[in-house]
Automatic annotation (TrEMBL):
Species whose genome carries this gene: Brevundimonas pondensis
Xref: NCBIfam families: MurGlcNAcKinAmgK
Location of the Aminoglycoside phosphotransferase domain: 24-287
Protein name per the record: Phosphotransferase
Alphabetical list of InterPro entries matching this protein: Aminoglycoside_PTrfase, Kinase-like_dom_sf
Pfam families membership: APH
Superkingdom of origin organism: Bacteria
Length: 362
């Protein structure tokens, strides 16, 4: 028996769940793992398992950009490194707003273990593929965001495992994400080569977008808000009918961030008509929003996110031998190509035209 398994068994025993039947769930692109627990009474719960040593150090709020780069990717991007404290604190905030985040049943933050409420398997992506109407689901997802965006955004969140800072998705983090594109695309596509001048220009053309993203950071962003992280909860309506998971990397960000994650999804097609309908619903619920200014940042940050995701997918394929992510890349290229036609993105589009051949961008 591994040391990690011994920790899991001790934790379950201390939580009164020694007799639970354990069923591992399929993994994703992270270092986190889940098991479904069926208790002796027949109830279903989830074991969240994130070994604290599995990722690099989290960001100290006082660190400079240089210090963040020296401490590794989680510090640059202001990721939580899967810390249980982050999940519990974000969950508590979401629940305080009447949104549906899992209840924390038991927690051992130092060892990266928690037992949480099981929201089931009715992921939006899954139930839509099985025939559920997508428009009501996406409207509810937008309604959940408007609740979040209307609420005050605290600097410190408090949950069952203690306090957690809500850091800003700032220029360093945004540019760090965009830089994954120039770092990893050449390792997947050897015909691409970005010299130091090209990389410097890459950062320069994104600077206005990242500056606007930081300046507009005013709400909590889930940060991975899409149809495979949203669960339909039967018996609830409106915003509360959306079960929220995988939100431990939440940051203070521009309110467009979660919207473009939802509506320009990397893993499933969202029609232009549905994107417009969902955005119209958002602006109807947030009438004080300057739509033109909002959409300028929406397009710019969506393009940056798509470049970031293309870099992540390239890394998953080239470094981690996960070829399945190649199937998602054409969708991301299509979103990126479309967004680069928007006003304000001419410099980024020009960089792409000079450095990335059209036959790659599809």
């Amino acid at each position: 028996m591994s040391d990690r398994e011994a920790l899991r068994l001790d934790f379950l025993r201390s939580a009164g769940l020694a007799g639970a039947v354990r069923a591992p769930l399929p993994g994703d692109a992270s270092t986190r793992r889940y098991e479904r627990l069926t208790t002796v009474s027949g109830a279903s719960l989830m074991l969240m398992d994130q070994a604290p040593a599995a990722e690099s150090q989290i960001c100290d709020p006082s660190w400079t950009p240089e210090e963040r780069h020296a401490h590794g990717w989680n510090a640059v991007a202001r990721l939580s490194a899967g810390r249980i404290e982050a999940f519990a604190a974000v969950a508590a905030h979401l629940k305080s707003l009447g949104l549906s985040a899992p209840e924390i049943v038991a927690v051992d933050a130092p060892n990266g273990l928690a037992v949480i409420e099981d929201f089931g398997d009715a992921l939006f992506a899954k139930v839509i593929a099985e025939g559920a109407e997508e428009v009501p689901l996406y409207r509810a997802a937008v309604e959940a965001l408007t609740v979040l965006h209307a609420a005050p955004t605290p600097d410190i969140l408090t949950g069952a495992a203690g306090d957690w800072p809500l850091l800003t998705y700032d220029q360093t983090a945004l540019q760090g994400g965009a830089d994954l594109f120039v770092e990893w695309l050449p390792k997947l596509i050897p015909s691409l080569a970005f010299n130091d001048d090209a990389v410097a220009e890459w950062r320069a053309v994104w600077a206005p977008i990242t500056a606007a993203g930081e300046a507009g950071a005013s709400v909590m962003a889930h940060r991975d808000y899409h149809a495979e992280n949203l669960i339909r909860l039967d018996g609830k309506t409106g915003a509360a009918s959306v079960g929220l998971i995988d939100f431990q990397d939440a940051v203070k960000a521009h309110p467009s961030w979660d919207l473009h994650s939802l509506l320009q999804d990397a893993r499933r097609d969202v029609s232009p008509a549905l994107e417009i309908l969902a955005l119209d619903h958002y602006f109807a619920l947030r009438p004080e929003t300057d739509r033109e200014a909002f959409m300028a940042s929406y397009k710019g940050l969506a393009a940056l996110n798509e470049a970031r995701i293309l870099g992540i997918f390239a890394r998953l394929i080239a470094r981690d031998a996960k070829p399945k992510y190649a199937a998602f890349m054409p969708r991301m290229w299509a979103h990126l190509n479309a967004n680069l036609k928007a006003p304000g993105l001419e410099a980024v589009a020009g960089w792409m035209d000079r450095h990335v051949p059209e036959d790659v961008r599809r």
